[in-house]
Structures are given as C-alpha cells and as structure tokens.
Design goal:
By secondary structure, this protein is an alpha/beta fold. It has 2 domains: 58-146, no CATH class; 161-317, Alpha-Beta Barrel (TIM Barrel). It contains 13 helices and 8 strands. The strands form 2 sheets. The protein has a 6-stranded mixed beta sheet. The chain has a two-stranded antiparallel sheet with strand order 1-2. The longest helix is centred in the middle third of the chain and has 12 residues, at 207-218.
C-alpha cells in the first residue's frame, strides 16, 4: 500500500520596520507569486507513512516514563497528542505537582475569565513543589486574578477601540493585527486578551470571520504589514494556516506577513518539517515568539527554532517583563 507524507507582537510603533527600510519599494519585485510556486514536496513510502520524530530530551523522557508510562516516544512527540492531552483541572494537575492552597482555590473556582490549559511538555518544565517557580506562575492561576486594581480594564491595550471589523486591530496606518483564532495551546496568566481567548467568544477561526477581515485589508491599500495573532495562529491546522497566508499574499499591497506565537516555547513539537516547508513559501515571513525565562530554553525549543530559522524565517522574541519572574 502506497501512502504519501506531505511537507507541505504586537504591532510595532509607526514607521519602517527595523532592518527593512526601503522594502516597500521592491518587496513585490522579489516575490514569486503564490500561483507560480512549485507544489509541496511529496515523499512516497510503502506501508506506514514515514514519521519525522521530534527529538526527546532526557528531561522529557524521565517525565514521560514517570507520569505517562503507557505513552511511547512517538506519541509524546506528536503535537496532536500534546494538544489533546493538555491539563486543565486541579484534580489532574495535582497528580503531577503539589498545589498550594491558593493555586488549588484558583483552579477550582477558575479565577478570572482566562481558562487553564498546559501542555504535558510545558508541564514537565515546572518545579514540582515550589508555587513561586517562575514557569508555574506564568501558567497556573492565582486567586489574585479575580481582583481588578484601580485603573485596570479587561482590554488593557485598548484594542477594541481600534477594531473596525471583528478580528482586526488597526492602530497604525500601514499595519494591522489579524486575530485569527481564540485558542492557545497553553494559556499564559498575564494574557492581555483574557477577555476573548478560550471558550468565552465565538471562534474567530471560522471562514466567515476571516473573509470580513481579509475584505477590510484588501480595501485599505495603505496596509502593507499583517501580523497574525489570536489566540495562537499555530494552533490551527497546516491547511488553515496555508489558506490564510495564501489569501493574504495575493493582496498586492501586502508586503510583510508576521506570526505572533508562543508555540515554539510551549508546544515545540508543532514545528514539523511539513509546517516549515509550507511556511517558507510565503516569504517575507517573520515570527515573534514569546520567551520569558531561561528555563524555557530547552533542547526541544532549540530544535523548533532551528527548523524555523533553516526555513528562512527571522525569529524575534517579544519578551514580557513580569514581576518576580524575569525582572531581577
């Protein structure tokens, strides 16, 4: 039997993008049109499709054998498995780490509006006993999330004021923020969009919502730079991401596409050869990742970033300054 394996942030201040001065004059002269691109590379195998296994670090191996003894390396290295087995509840989380009373109360009562979800991979990085561990504080809720300080709002960046159509934030003349999904693989407790990510709103990933956003971008020729965010755009399937990038790349005045994502840090298994092969067809394409602490710099993350860099995608880190996490 023959089978086929297919390889198929936020907005910066107004002005030219750093390092890209003058690109507006010739970017499209150097681009190959999407229609003219060669088809994705197809690797044909007989029997079971060839699997590109994501390298498992010694730390991950110990964690997997301890807590998931029935899961083989191939499953652990699958981003689909990691996504489907995210930890969401106190009862489940307490099987992996000791929870403080405050953490347990926050989890049981879902402090604030932001849901909880942690990939098994990222959970393996957390300190088992210390509730003050920086990585724990970024993904496990605290009851303090329920309290709004004076002057705080649920839209701290004022994005809704600059949203002409659903899913679009147009604050600066030549660039827009395109919120393509309300889903993340792991929810960060410091999220500035906690009002809209998770299960609180109708999904923004429906084609109808995308069409209205793309129509707005098409109708405004001063826009040359589109940043895809959410949620996390890399939680979408390869096919959905490709559809979006292809539609945007066909708009004549769009020169630069960017992806804002935490996936290489919390779900590095998502960065597959198939994904990177597809992404490199849409240059100029840039990626802003979110690295907030040295403990996030792992073998798996290094491999994910190497795959992206080898695909010609410039990487930048949009590090968030967080009290008692990375402000020392």
């Amino acid at each position: 039997m023959e089978s086929e394996t297919l390889f198929t942030e936020e907005a910066e201040p107004p002005g030219n993008l750093a390092g890209l001065v003058g690109i507006e004059n010739y970017a499209h002269d150097t681009l190959t049109s999407y229609d003219a691109l060669p088809p994705p590379h197809v690797v044909k195998t007989r029997g079971v499709p060839y699997v590109f296994r994501f390298k498992e670090s010694p730390r991950s191996r110990v964690f997997r054998k301890r807590f998931y003894p029935e899961i083989v390396p191939h499953e652990w290295s699958s981003w689909h498995w990691q996504f489907s087995n995210r930890i969401r509840e106190a009862e489940t989380l307490s099987k992996f780490i000791w929870l403080s009373e405050d953490e347990r109360n926050a989890l049981n009562h879902q402090a604030g509006s932001l849901p909880v979800a942690i990939t098994p991979y990222y959970l393996s990085l957390l300190d088992e006993f210390d509730p003050h561990n920086p990585l724990r504080r970024m993904v496990i809720p605290a009851t303090a999330e329920c309290h709004l300080a004076a002057g705080e709002t649920d839209d701290p960046l004022g994005e809704e004021h600059d949203s002409p159509v659903p899913g679009i934030v147009h604050r600066y003349p030549d660039r827009v923020l395109f919120l393509v999904t309300d889903t993340c693989s792991t929810y960060c407790r410091y999220c500035t969009r906690s009002r809209m990510v998770g299960s609180h709103t109708k999904s923004l990933s429906e084609t109808e919502s995308w069409e209205s956003a793309i129509a707005y971008i098409t109708a405004n020729p001063q826009i040359r730079d589109v940043l895809l965010s959410g949620g996390d755009p890399l939680t979408l399937s390869d096919e959905r991401i490709e559809w979006l990038l292809a539609r945007l790349r066909k708009i004549p005045h769009i020169e630069i596409l960017r992806l804002g994502t935490k996936v290489p840090v919390v779900l590095p298994q998502r960065i597959t050869p198939k994904l990177t092969y597809m992404l490199k067809r849409f240059h100029p394409l840039f990626m802003s990742i979110h690295v907030n602490h040295p403990d996030e710099l792992t073998t798996e993350m290094s491999l994910a970033c190497s795959r992206l860099a080898n695909a010609g995608i410039p990487l930048g880190s949009q590090t968030v300054l967080l009290h008692k996490i990375n402000d020392d």
